[in-house]
Every structure is written in structure tokens, then in C-alpha cells.
Amino acid sequence: MNYFNLDKQKLIIGFCLSIIFTICLPFVTVASAQNVTVSGKVVDVNNAPIMGVNIAVMGERRGVVSDLNGLFSIQADKSKVISFSCLGYKTRELPAAELTGGNIVLQDDASVLDELVVIGYGTKRKRDLTGSIASISSKDMESTPVKDVLTAMQGRVAGVQIISSSGAPGSSMQIRVRGASSLNSGNSPLYVVDGIPIETTSSSLLNVDDEHGLNPLSYLSPGDIESIEVLKDAASSSIYGSRAANGVVLITTKRGKEGKATINLFSSFGISNITRKLSVLNSRQWREFILEGYRNYDLHMGLASETGVHYTVVDSLNPVNSGDGDWQSLMYNTAYEKQVGVNISGGTKAMRYSLSTSYLDQEGIIRNSKYKRFTTRANTEFDASEYIKVGTNVAYTYSTNDRISAGGMGNRSMVVALLTRPPTYALNYPDGSYLGYLNGKRNPIALAEECLHLNTSHRVNANEYLEISFTKWLKFKTSFSIDFEAQKEDEFFPTTVDYRVGYNTGAVRVAEYFTWANENYFTYNQSFSGHNVSGLLGFSQQEWKTDVTGLNGSTFVSDDIRTLNGAGTISGQEVNVAYGHSMASFFARGAYDYKGKYLFEVNLRADGSSRFGKNNRFGYFPSASAAWRFSDEKWFKSIKFVNDAKLRLSVGQTGNEAIDNYTAQGTFITGRNYLTNAGVAPYQMPNADLSWETTTQYNLGLDLSFLYGRVDFIFDAYIKNTKDLLYDVPMPNTTGFTSVINNVGEVQNKGLEFSVISKNLVDKFKWNTTFNISFNKNKVVSLPKEVLVNGYIQNGSFHILKEGEPISTFFGYKYKGIYAYDTDNVDQLRHLNSTGKIFKGGDVIWEDIDKNGYIDQNDRTIIGNAQPLFVGGLTNDFSYKNFSLNIFMQFSYGNDIYNNVDYYRNSIFSYNNVSTEFYYNAWRNQGDVTEYPKVVRNDPMQNEARVQSRWVEDGSYLKVKTATFAYEFPKNVVSKFKLQSLKLYVTGSNLLTFTNYSGYDPDVNTLSSGLRLGVDYGSYPQSRTFLFGLNIGF
Fold it and tell me: pLDDT tens, 332-368?
């Protein structure tokens, strides 16, 4: 990844101009002269002229496009054949000799006009949608090979923001559909796979840090996916009721089709490397810098100036301090990955099947991090009779994720350790063993090589369904599904990484997750005299159970004995808990349209959940939507270049019930008193009125299609209000409780979404463009009081929840520069209190918010915002004959990142290594003008340690995310080898990044909480990958 620090305005202006150039490029092809002139008019079945039809002489690279009135003229030899093609119509091929200037009639292509999308409990023609739904097809995913489902969605759906929590193999991502709406109940969407809701917590039962939650969809192989639909507005998602406030992602796996068996093999091999390295000091520079810090500290404290001889680390004769290591080069390595898989599908009129299996082995760019996944799936469908259909979907996934090198927070953060460990520290002792914890610094190589943090998972999903067709218009479907996952986490930290001499720790945690669901519903569909009526009525029930057992150990007899029977002490955080919840629901939908011109739909779901108070067990979630295809009105027919135009309007309510299972109930905690007598004590106050968070959403949409399907434009505007936020409300001490979860507060999201799909060139050389951009403004409307959000960061909290401000607002001190002279501190500002030391030359200039003459916690203010102004993506597909090129670009603008890694890299305490920028540009003499303070060990004036705007950076970026070049061998070639298809491709990922962010990558969010977005605490870096693949079809 090449980084270019560009002026932000120039970057955005240039990018916008390139988009305008792409979308507005004329859709023409050029023809050269031939013998005779052939002319005519292209019309549809209603005798209406068709503009934008490609008329080409077959076998030659010449063609023209019909004009506004459908007229065309082309020169061709009479012996040639003329082809007429246009998106939405069937292609016709006619001899040139037969074209005498009359009308050429093109028939509608029903496969295009009747394109289906998956909706809740069914499918619908795309042109008949009244809600806001975005789709990603298997063809879209095949054009850019990926290893997981979330990566396939990133940057490709308007209104959906996906942020990488880590670059580690198998790690998860943060996904937000139309912004963050909740404070405590989670902001992830509901995932529904083949009609069955998937609990996102099931794949993260044993997380021990915020960065490396497991991907909830990691058990799915992208090669098994047929389509992904994202339900964004309430009209499309309210059918899922209390779990749909954050949107719904519908995933449909591949099904078999009638026909002979087809076998598709795929394999790939990849190479990954770190995209960039951050600058740090070498041994000579670091020694000079540390001594400078000691001398300045002595001067600050009024001590006699020292030469630094009391600092023993300068003794290069000490083998512990004789190193000159580049820790980044030692840690980051070339990583390899391989993936193989096979899919077999086919069937008869009575039975269809799709069988698949795949294996992924992915190394990480940090030593010893790796992810392995084996998946197998069988989808079958059987017509027991003309009226009865039976189906089965079964999937099994086994995965291992070695996450020790990914690292977690604080002292165990791998990235922080390798960036701040002094270069003089040796890697090993003379006997070859790893040098361990020294002066507050862990050995990052020992962390990677000797620690254990292994997650092992077995997961089984099964779904059986029965469908009965009573008549052509009335059907009943019942299904029963299970989702079982067993996880085990093994953890061990040897003596070489612990800060206590000779101390080691280990842990084993085991979790089992099981859910079953039963869904039953009737569907009704009937049409008469242009009237189309459909309905849905159903009942569902689902139950979840989780069992977690864990045990910790310490003082193991040897680092080589890592099982708990080798621990000297079994203590601390022993866990053995079981919990669960259940839900029962009723749902209904009614839809009506007249000739596809006037469309209406209503939905209602009633959910009853055991998670909420006995006075609010049931919630009701209605929605209504309407659409008007005004392009079918007579008065619109004169507008020839627009062939389809539809206005959509919807309103509805959805809920969020993602809280702990027993939050509404009074609970007790077990323990022992000072006499070791066992007992219980009240722990949580009951709340019988606790209810769901409710989101009310309004959506206005516009769908336009130009030039007979050559250009599609989709626009949505929405307002999304979430009230009754589930929030910890402080309680008086007299109650015996510190707080109680209650329904208080409100959050609002409002935004705009634009998508453009353009078929720029459709002849032999084809060029398609897809562009999306979305704007979202998030705001806390009401809250009982301002709240500081705790986080793993130096010197306290760094986010604040405040009315009128967005979630994930940074809160700290305003950095205004560096005093060049002692006399520049005209106001004589002091440190901490009225008697504190006066800031002098080389100290940071702070903004005194309360104007009291000294800098303390009351001078903190808002210093940034992690929410972007807009995000989006741009895809260009080029193809010529058997060659294709797909380039995908992703962008984000206006978001800030709190670069906590930079705090470590620009602070001198505990012998940190620092950045070369700090080394060369630190303030050293009166009159120095710089952005870096003077070098003082232990930072007595807190020039670095404060949560401050200096560490807040512009996180905007434009990425060339992927580029795939492919060649598909001609049919006549592969048929000689008894093959159906043969395709070779190479894909590059994270190729270029344009950004002003100084960290490894701006697409980062170390902390998983929705309240603490935009923090770089030293997450696992993103890698640049080159993937070489082969697909074979039999």
C-alpha cells in the first residue's frame, strides 16, 4: 500500500471529477465505412422507439447506437448479419439484405424485467419493491475473490459502513447500517442465513480482548453464497421486529438446478506483506534521545545536570543492552495462504442438490498468527408430489484461530510492544533464551513465538423445511432449524513475557451455544385484471442456550507444561455459567399493486421476549410503504430517455433487544465473607417495566432507469429516531445498588444515499461502473447526563456521550502548539492547579477552557468525531473477449481517528522507543518553532500523557481496495479437454491508499464497542495481498 499525503480538498475534488467523467462518458461505438447503407427504426412491442440500442455488424468491430427516436444508419455488406442488442430486451440478429428501412421490433427480456430479490420470508421482483433493499450477487463476489462475507460487502452497499477491527486472519469487522443507534444494546445488524436468524454472539463467546472478536459469519464460505440482500429501511426489515433496528442482512446459499451435474473446482494461492512500516529510532539515536530526556528531567526537577552515567542501559557491554534490532522487520514476515474447494450441483425435475466443501489456510503477517477453516455444505430439495416440497440445508464448519500474535490491549499489545521496545534490547540472552520483560517492555518476539492464544470452533447448522401448495395461490411452509457451536480457548503466557519474574499464567475456557427455531407461515399470491395481491401470515419461536466454563492457573512448574494440572495455583475468574432466553413471534404482511404502477405494502410483527420485564414482554412493530411508478403515466411517455421511474415512501418501527438475558430481573451474587462463609447478596435491581429500544424510521426513495437500462440511479433519504435507549441509570446509595438498566434517552440518524449503475460500453469491449455514496449524521438527542466512556487509554476516558453530539465523540484537551520561548506564556498558565509549575518553552500550549489560569480536567472539551461525513465505493468492470479487469475503490471522508499508537511513539517514559519525527523535531532551544515538545523523561508536565487533540488525526482515505485481472479460456478450447470452463486470475488487495493518517492504516477500529469507534490502539496491521487463482468447471 503506497501512502500519499495529499491535500484533502484536492483529493476529494479530483476524485469527484473522475467519477463525473466516468458516469458521463458518451455511450457510443464507432463504425467505419462499408459498401451499402442500412437504416431503420428500433421499437418495442408497443411500437415505442428504443434509444441506445447497439447495432453492430457481426464479425466486425463496427457499430452504432440508435438515437432518441430509435433511428439508426450503418454501412455494411449485404452478405453480413446485423445484431441488435439492448439491456432489457432480447437480442435479434438479421441479415443486412432484409433491412429495408422498416421497424425492428425487440421483445422484452423477462429474465431482466423479472429479476428477483430475497425479502423477509420470500422473494419479490426488484421492480416491485417499495422499501430500501440493496443486493450483492454471486457474480459480484466472483469478480473480486474474498475469504469472508463481510469483506465482500465492504464499500459496495450505500448506507452500510464496514470498518476493519483488525488485519488478523479470521478477525471480525464493525458493520453499521445507517449509523449507530444504541448505547448499550449493540449496533450490529441481524443476519439471516437461508431464512434462519443467526445470533452474532455465538461466534464470540470467549473473547478476551476488544480487538479480536471472531467474525460471526466466519463459518460461511463465500463460494457458497448465491446472494446477499441488505434490508435498510423499516418497511423491508420490520417483518423481523425486535431484532431489526440495526438493519437485516439476508444471505442465501446456492441451490441446485434441474439439469446434468456440474462440478466446479476452485483453488488459490496468496502472498501477503505489511503495507508499510512506521519510523522508529536506531540504537545510537535512541541512546542520545534517552540521555537528553534524563538531563532535561534533572533540570526540570532542579537537580544538578547529569551526564547520564546513572542510566545503566547505555552500558553497551551489558549483553542485555547490546542489541541493535529492527523489531518491525523481525516481527512482520511474508505470509502465505491457500484455499481449495469444490461445488457439485444439479438435479432432476423432482430433486435438486448442491454439495460443496472448502478449506482455507491463511497465515498472518505477524509471526505465528494463522487461521484455518474447513467447511462443508449440502443443500437438497425434493418434490414429493406436485403439491409437496421438502428441503434440507446442512453445514458443518471447523476452524482454528491462533490469535496470540494479534495481541489485545496495553502491555500485551503486540504492535505497541514492537514499536516501543528499545532497539538496544537484545532478542535473546547469551544462552539463547528470549530476553523477557524489562523496564516496562515486553519482548514482542517472545509474545509471538512462546505465547498461546488458540481458539478452536466446531459449528453445525441444519434446517429442514416442508412446503405444501394447496392451490396455485396458497402455500404453507414450516421449517425447523438448529445452530450448535462448541468453542475452546487455550491461553498461556510464559515467564518470558510476564512482568513478574518467574511468573506464568494460563487459562482454558470452553463454551457451548445452541439454538433452535421453528417457523410456520402461509403465503398468498393472486393476480386478476391487473390487480396483484399477496399476503403472509406466520408464527415462529426460537430458544437460545449457552454454557461457559473456564479456569485460570498461574505459577506453572515449567513453561513447557501448559495444562492446568501443571499450575501451582488455580485461582481467579473461575467461570461456570449457563444462561439463555427465548422468543415467540407472530408476523403478517399484505401487499397490493395495480399493473406495477401503484404499489402498497404493510407489515406487522409481534415479538415476545424473555429478556424484558414482565410488564413489557411483547412489542409490536408495524410498517407501511407505497410506491408510484410515474413513468407509466401517460403524461410521462414523452420523456424518452427515462424508461423507468418510481417514487417510494415508507415508515415503520423496529426494535433492539440485544441486552443481557436477565437484565430485567433481580439477581444475586455469590461470595464469601471474611470468615470464608459462603453466601449470596443482592447484585442487580429488578425492572419489571424494562422494554426494547424502538426505532422509528422514515424513508423517501427514487429509482430511475435511463437509456433502456444502460444507467440506473437509486436515491434514498431517511430519518431514523431511536428512543427508550437501554441505559445504566445511577441509583441513590440508599438503595444498595449503584445503577439499574432503564429505558431513557434518544439517538437520531439521518442521511442520504446515492447509487449509480452504468453500462458504459456494451459491445465487444464492455465497461460497467457501479458507484455508491452515503451521508449519515448521527446525534444524541437526549440523555440523563453527560457520560464519559471508559476506554483502554492513557490518563482516563477519551469518548463522551453528550446531547447534540454524535456517538463516539472524542473528549480531551485542546493542543494549540508549543511555546517557542519561556516568555510566550503571557498568561502564566500552570500545570494542574494554581500552585503548579508554569509552562515554559518546549511545553505544550493548552487551551484554558474555564479561564482559571491552570490546566486540569475541567479544561477538557470535544476534540474530534469518529463518524465520517460520507463513505462509499466505486467499481469498474472491463472486459474484452475472454479478458476481464475489475477495479474496486473504497473511500471515507470526514472521520477522525484517535491515534493512541502515536502517543506511545511520541512519549518518553519507561524507556520507550519513539518516532524519528520526534527525534529530529523536538524543541531544544529558546525560539525553536516546532510541533513536538521538549524531551523530558517521565513527562512531568503531561505534554504527552493527556488525552489531547494532538493525537486526533484526519482518517479520510481513498483506497484502491482490489484489482482482479482474469482470463477465461474459450469454450472451443476447454471442450477439447472435456471441460465446461477454465479461468485464471490474479487479484491484488490493498494496493494503494491515499490518506493523511500517519498510522499503519486508516481503516481501523481497535475497540469493538459501538461507543468507542475510531481508536487505533495498535491493532493488527492490514496487509497487501496478491492472490493467484484457478477455477475449473466440468
Answer: 999 999 999 999 999 998 999 999 999 999 999 998 8
Contacts of 98 (CB under 8 A, 6+ apart): none
CA 51 to chain centre: 40
CA separation (Å) from 7 to 368, 587, 897, 976? Answer: 39, 52, 17, 56
CA proximity to 151, closest of 1011, 959, 883: 959
Write the DSSP string, 823-858: GG-TT--EESSTTSPBP-TTSEEE--TT-SSEESGG
Cβ contact 229:123 at 8 Å: no
Percent helix, strand, coil in the chain, to 5, is 15, 50, 40
Give the model confidence (pLDDT) of 882-892 as tens digits: 999 999 999 99
Q: Where are the domains of the chain?
A: 31-113, 116-261+334-417+425-689+697-788, 789-910+942-1033
Residues 1004, 1008: Cα–Cα separation, whole Å: 11
- C-alpha cell, 1023: 496487509
| 73 SS3 class | strand
In 3D space, the residue among 103, 21, 159, 327 whose CA is nearest the CA of residue 750 turns out to be 159
Q: Which fold has domain 116-261+334-417+425-689+697-788?
A: Maltoporin; Chain A (2.40.170)
Across the range 919-946, mean pLDDT stands at: 93
The mean pLDDT of 862-879, rounded to a whole number, is 94
Considering the segment(s) 31-113 as one domain, its CATH architecture is Sandwich (2.60)
Highest mean pLDDT of the ranges 18-22, 323-327, 731-735, 947-951: 947-951
Please answer whether residues 58 and 114 qualify as being in contact, where contact means their C-beta atoms are separated by less than 8 angstroms.
Answer: no
- Give the residue carrying C-alpha cell 460487502: 153
**pTM for the structure as a whole:** 0.86
- Pairing label, strands 830-831, 854-855: parallel
Containing 602, the helix (H) or strand (E) segment is strand 598-609
